[in-house]
Specification:
By secondary structure, the chain is α+β, with helices and mostly antiparallel strands. The chain has 8 helices and 6 strands, in the order αβββαβαααααββα. It has a single domain, classed as Glutaredoxin (3-Layer(aba) Sandwich). Helix content is 54%, strand content 15%. α2 links the parallel β3 and β4.
Length: 198
């Protein structure tokens, strides 16, 4: 079952710049991209999983050409007993430069095992599979610091008035996840126009 859980190709993200932003969140894409999408996500959320199934194409179409950067903020909104561990594992991997890789693995776990697969031993397997040092990762997920970072994201979500996940903020405007494609097309119109003039 574990081999199936690790079936997705996290190496896909090696082509993309990643960084930790200090509010806190985990960014993918050109830091100078003209558009930014902030997403509050919960790894126990079925809608977040459905959105994730479409996000790979968003990354390919909009992030890869440099038109969009995405900042992900993992939180424990739906089923805290499970999603807290997943969020903290993602935060630790993100601080080590592999947020998007472990997120891929986490959603594969959700697909194959459900939220009951969110246990420390599985997260350690994911971390080592994407090239993280096991000792450093374990020290992080057992630390007070990661709990504090998770609490900061939760507080930011409350300050924003987030009442569900996924919650998406595209260029400082809230957009329903089910309409994100239309919103992206509207936001990208200047990019397509400038490209046509080049």
């Amino acid at each position: 079952m574990i081999s199936s859980m690790l079936g997705l190709h996290a190496s896909y993200y090696e082509d993309f710049p990643q960084r930790t932003v200090d509010y806190p969140g985990f960014e993918i894409g050109d830091p100078d991209a003209p558009n930014v999408m902030i997403e509050f996500i919960d790894y126990s959320c079925s809608y977040c999983y459905e959105f994730w199934n479409n996000q790979r194409s968003i990354i390919e179409e909009y992030v890869r050409p440099g038109h969009l950067r995405i900042i992900a903020k993992p939180m424990s909104f739906v089923r805290p007993a499970y999603s807290q561990a997943a969020a903290e594992a993602a935060i630790c991997a993100g601080e080590m430069g592999r947020f998007w890789e472990i997120q891929e693995k986490t959603w594969a776990t959700y697909r194959d095992l459900g939220i009951t697969g969110y246990v420390e031993s599985n997260f350690i397997i994911m971390a080592t599979d994407i090239g993280l040092d096991e000792h450093d990762f374990v020290a992080c997920i057992r630390s007070y610091d990661v709990e504090q970072t998770a609490d900061e994201i939760e507080q930011e979500a409350r300050d924003f008035g987030v009442t569900g996940t996924p919650s998406l903020l595209l260029n400082n405007e809230w957009v329903s996840w089910s309409y994100i494609r239309l919103a992206l097309e509207d936001a990208m119109a200047p990019c397509w126009l400038n490209r046509g003039r080049a």
